[in-house]
Amino acid sequence: MRSDVAEVTNSVEEEARHRRAADSGDTAAMSVLGSLLLRRGDLDGAEPYLRGATADGDRAAANNLGVLLHQRGYPDEAAGWWRIAAVGGSAAAAHALGRHYRERGDEPAAEYWLRQSAEQGHALGAYALADLLEHRSDMGAERWLRAAAERGHREAAYRLARTLERRAAEKGPAVTDFATGTGWDPFPTGTGRRDAGVYDTGTALGADRWALTDTGVHRSLSAGAGADAPGRAGRTPDGQGSDAPRGLSLIDEAEQWYRQAAARGHRRAALHLGAILEKRGELKEAGRWYLTSAKDGEPRAACALAFLLKDAGDEESAAIWWLRAAQDGDGNAANALGALHTARGESQTAERWYRAALDAGDINGAYNLGLLCSAQDRTAQAEQWYRRAAYAGHREAANALAILLLQGGDPMGAEPWFSKAAEAGSVDAAFNLGILHAGRDDDGTALEWYERAAAAGHTEAALQVGIALLRDGDEHEAERHLRCAAGGGSAEGAFRLATVLDARQPPPGQPALGEPRKAKTECEEWYERAAEQGHRRAQVRVGMLAADRGDVREAARWYREAAEAGSRNGAFNLGLLLAREGSEAEAALWWTRAAHDGHGRAALRLALLAARRGELAEGRRWCAKAVELGPAEVTERAARLRDALHQELTA
To answer: Who wins on pLDDT, 510 or 632?
Structure first.
């Protein structure tokens, strides 16, 4: 408190000292006093002192007199004084004069004066020149953005970082692929991923302040670069010939400039810096910058912070930040809140937030409303929302609409929407087109769409391509696609890959006495992966391999899993295993289940079992069943046994 009082006292004393000197005719004092009064907003008090100093040739006073007249609404007279100061070497006046001409639409004059200011090292002049050149798509804009950024201009640092990041995105995957929420579907149509991208609204030239003076004590911006500003050193890594530091990638350099701008309070720079750090996996620091930006009022940062919190398991805190962002008009956050309430079963609240997202201009809101209505069997409303989103270019909505039409018996109406979605990049739609054409026996077109979807990483599409190639005899290419499918989690892909590998193996011989158990082959590992995912044929095959190794317990486990899931082969093999172990009664139960499901060998086993027990009529009944079911070998044996039992019964 005392220091504040002392500071005010010193300020008053300093002003009084300048006033005494100015009243006695001191030009420098008149200039400084006029500047002090102008900053305070005392235009009437400042004007006579600034005019007096200007008459004595003080260029800073001429510049500030121009600022005063501009504030009074006399821009042409202001420009006259700025010209006098600029000709006298005032970089601040040259900047102000350049701004004046740009507002008048005289770009050549604006460029001339802004260049004069920039070349004298004036940060605001360099930034304004960069903005003018960028508006004309002039390659020289980056040089002046860099010059302004190196002198501490935070908006220039931010825009330079955006330029570098966009150039990096043109060379490869965008770095700003951070989560901002969309499509909160439990994946019935393969959607539900977060949207990618940080959307920038740009900054108007008017964000700069008019410079009051070009004297050191009254500069509106520091003359030096920020402490963390990158130095100048030659060419960029991509050979563009700018002044980027050597050895830095475009993204690394962008990060440095974002840091400089963010450290100076630029909330969008903090947002983009957080995005880069999140992409790199540095979540803790990313969260700090998101928090900084969010506290400064950036709704996209609040939304991104909420996603980080949700991923960390703190759903309640995430909801608070989503709510804050949504109330500030962020559609992504509104969608996320809708998803949160959907997961909690609060469909009415979810619908309200999805509508809020749509009102905020986020078309994902319409798509999510379609998903919500579809889950509640409100088909007509779902179709309406899907159409709205699809007409706005939402590819997954187009795919969902096509599925809805197909399920409603309108394949002709569905196909164009599948095509639109696929052409827009929907992998699911490309796969669905494959299914559509396969259903029409148009295998060639179906394969083309499957291949397109497979190339984009669609697991089931890769499986279908692999099956088609196997059918055509191209085992090598088939294996490649089956590996993609299996690696993507397809149980059928893993099973079919295992069968391909299995067919290449030499038939196993009897192990020598005392020979150690061999390690599992690759094909057995793929069988097991498929079996663990519930693939019944794979479970039977794993059981057979275990039985071959003499591992009866493991074999029984896999046979039982397959049998309980409805596999007749699993039931039959489990019966064989139980019979060998002396559990003939339980074996008969599994054989009975298998025979009722159409397994001829199981029926023959039951016939033999009945015959051995002397239950001849029962044996004949199972023989008839076995003859009916086959295959040929079983039919032949069952027929002979039936005849023998008939003779025994009629003897």
So the answer is: 632
